[in-house]
Every structure is written in C-alpha cells, then in structure tokens.
Design a protein that fits this description.
about 0% strand; mainly alpha; single chain; 8 helices
C-alpha cells in the first residue's frame, strides 16, 4: 500500500464535517498554545521534574538529559516554543499538517517517557486513572485525524499559502 493513498488530494466535506474538524483543530491548537505559553511565562518551569519521573525504556535517556544543565535548558526551550508554534499553527491553519505531525511526535515522546502502565507509580498526581490509554494517546489519534482530513486549506492560512480554491473543496 502506497502511503500517498492515505492522503487523498481532493476531500469533500459537508458543513457538519467541516465545522467539526475545524473545531477539533482549534481546540487541540488551543491546548498546545496554552501549554506552551504557560511554560514560557513561568520562570520556574522546567522539564526536569517530568524527566525525573521517567519510567520504561527511555528512563536512561531522560536521566542523561537531567544530568546536563545545558541539555535541560535546550529541552525546555524546544518544549515551550514547540508547543506554542504547534498551537499557533493549528489555530491559524498555517502549515497545520506539519503542526499535527510535530504534535504527534511531541505527544509520543511524552507518552513513552511516562507511560500509563500497570506498576508504574508517579509522584505527580494525574487527572484520573489510566491503563495504557491516556490523554496524550487520545490527542495523538485526534491529530492523526487532522492529518488525514485536512481543513486548513479550506479555512486557514494554508488556503492563502497554497492558493487553494474554496469552491473545489466544499
């Protein structure tokens, strides 16, 4: 199976589908943007606490980052500004396919560094009880939907960038 077949060139949406996908894109974008801005504006925020909690196969990698203050600073910078850029891209519909892919990668890293598996105890409280599936995995799936069913070339800056014709999409 060719991967390009998963991304049809011309998708047609009814109004309900279009608005539902746009709302999903904006809600996820808001979540990313808020998380990024809240980290940027908090002078005490650091990824070190999250990395210290690391379990599973990437715990050694996380510990090596924590052991080097320069690496922690770099990870903090990439995390804060990556979240912010992904959020802005999704909200504005600007390079939203790339923003969705970057969001999936970032959420995937969060997932494998601190997975919700049986027997893993974390000191930071979670919003609920998870078993394998958590909010990161669900948001990754939603971002995949936004990749497969793009809307930014209909309503978003991508429409201007890629000069798509609105009438051909509806």
């Amino acid at each position: 199976m060719d991967i390009k077949s998963l991304f049809p060139k011309s998708l047609k949406y009814n109004q309900c589908q279009l608005y539902g996908l746009i709302v999903l894109r904006i809600l996820i974008g808001w979540h990313f943007l808020y998380e990024g801005v809240s980290k940027i504006t908090n002078p005490y925020w650091s990824s070190a606490a999250f990395l210290m909690e690391s379990k599973w196969i990437f715990s050694d990698w996380a510990q090596s980052i924590i052991s080097d203050p320069a690496l922690v600073t770099a990870v903090d910078f990439l995390n804060m500004w990556g979240l912010t850029a992904i959020g802005l891209g999704l909200i504005c519909g600007c390079f939203s396919r790339w923003a969705s892919i970057a969001g999936m990668v970032l959420l995937g890293i969060y997932y494998v560094v601190n997975p919700p598996f049986i027997g893993f105890q974390y000191s930071a409280p979670t919003e609920g009880s998870y078993l394998i599936i958590n909010k990161n995995l669900i948001e990754m799936a939603a971002l995949y939907i936004l990749i497969v069913f793009p809307t930014s070339t209909i309503i978003g800056i991508d429409r201007l960038i890629f000069n798509k014709n609105l009438e051909n999409k509806l």
